[in-house]
Design a protein that fits this description.
By secondary structure, the protein is mainly alpha-helical. The chain contains 13 helices and 2 strands, in the order ββααααααααααααα. The chain has one domain. It is about 70% helix and about 5% strand. Strands 1-2 form a two-stranded antiparallel sheet. The longest helix has about 35 residues, at about 140-170.
């Protein structure tokens, strides 16, 4: 077990007069060894305090929920109104589950952007120096930020998916094109969609640490998630399926299209992107000045 011993030496200052009028000496106070687990727990508490006291955190949560539900309802309503004009091919390819979980793409971008700001805001304000001075193991800071944002992202995204799915299916039921929670792949889509949001949040922390500039990091993340659809047009179809945007779509798809990975493979692809960003962030944060 790795330990660190903290010693507070205040012997240069008298504590005050004793009963006989003399000054009582103050001896050094040695605080016992702090285990790695205790140090990590303290880091998590510190980062959680930062996160929960920021108004932007709760605004992000509210916006994510509203966008996920709103886009799902709009998509379902639009599908119902245009159903009669759709071609047989479009009807056959329609995925009611994926249609209801379109908000996952936006939730991933929203939480990814929040994750970026947890790092870049400290760099821009200079607060990162205080953070790293208080917590010598810089990698613990990144681990705490990534874990907390990912946990919040997963929880909020899963709740949003459920809140978006059921009313959307009620709308689609008017055309008898709805899916059921008991259908094969539906529960997996609900859960894996939330997992993908959490993983993108880790990517956001990594990009924020690597680039240290909010606008640059969020632009990079946006291009990967949304702009990837445009960039993918210049790539072979076999490579296009491995772009982050295509992988995110695949995680919430039940009717598997030819140009999409399976949901499980799509999650693995997103995790690999996150692992690469996280590893690069850990490497750089240990070598660069704050």
């Amino acid at each position: 077990m790795n330990t660190t011993t903290y010693t507070a030496d205040v012997r240069s200052r008298p504590e005050g007069p004793s009963g006989d009028g003399s000054q009582r000496p103050v001896t050094a106070i040695a605080v016992g060894p702090v285990s790695r687990g205790t140090a990590l727990a303290r880091t998590f508490r510190a980062e959680w305090t930062k996160l929960r006291t920021l108004r932007s955190t709760w605004i992000t949560v509210g916006v994510s929920v509203a966008v996920s539900i709103g886009f799902a309802l709009l998509n379902a309503t639009s599908t119902v109104s245009e159903w009669a004009d759709m071609s047989p091919k479009q009807r056959a390819e329609f995925d009611p589950t994926s249609s209801s979980l379109i908000g996952v793409l936006f939730a991933a971008l929203i939480f990814g952007s929040l994750a970026v700001r947890t790092m870049t805001s400290e760099y821009s304000s200079g607060m990162i120096r205080v953070t790293f001075a208080a917590i010598a193991q810089r990698r613990r800071v990144i681990a705490a930020k990534a874990s907390l944002i990912a946990t919040i992202g997963f929880t909020v995204a899963l709740a949003s998916n459920l809140l978006a799915y059921f009313p959307s299916q009620q709308i689609l039921r008017s055309k008898h094109i709805e899916s059921s929670i008991n259908d094969s792949g539906v529960v997996a889509a609900l859960v894996l969609g939330a997992v993908s949001v959490a993983v993108v949040a880790v990517i956001g922390v990594g990009l924020g640490t690597i680039l240290r500039r909010t606008a640059l990091a969020i632009t990079t993340l946006s291009l990967a998630i949304i702009g990837g659809q445009i960039v993918g047009l210049a790539l072979p179809e076999s490579a296009r399926t491995y772009l982050p945007s295509s992988a995110l779509q695949a995680t919430v798809s039940v009717h598997r299209a030819a140009d999409l990975l399976s949901a499980g493979r799509a999650v693995i692809v997103i995790v690999l992107y996150a692992a690469a960003c996280y590893a690069a962030a850990n490497l750089l944060v240990s070598r660069r000045d704050a």
